[in-house]
Amino acid sequence: MPAGKNKIIIIGxxxxxxxxxxxxAVIIRLTxxxxxxxxxxxxxxxxGTVATIENIDAIRxxxxxPVQDGxxxxxxxxxxxxxxxxxxxxxxxxxxxxxxxxxxxxxxxLDETDELIYTSPDIPVGSQLTGFALDKxxxxxxxxxxxxxxxxxxxxxxxxxxxxxxxxxxxx
Length: 172
Hints:
Layout: H1 3-30, H2 56-62, E1 74-76, E2 79-82, E3 93-96, E4 104-110, E5 116-119, E6 128-130, E7 141-152, E8 158-170
């Protein structure tokens, strides 16, 4: 074979391998396998990733690794029911994962109005909060809301926040 044809075959083979590699990367991405662990809440930028029902599995998967200082791994359920507007929820669950490095507290705001309806006590690393009632009584209905985690430094000053969407159900 002439040298020119060998060069063309080699270039074609390299191009084909590049296309195959790109297709494999797209398939892996589309099947939901995360390329990197998902960590929410970046201290330096003061921003975070909103956890939703669609991405909560990827976030939970990332919780098995230690979280860097200034970041936060959320461990909670995102649908909370309350018997009425004043009674504690039997199923709301919020925990400060053992993989975190900071104490947190969270506030709950109604999605449409940003009205503050709950402020939690501080939750140390490895602790959880269940059985809490809202600070403001709501009438019967479904309420989209946002739980805002406030990460605290050793002196109790806020370092950053992380927002997570939740759905509140007031039964009676």
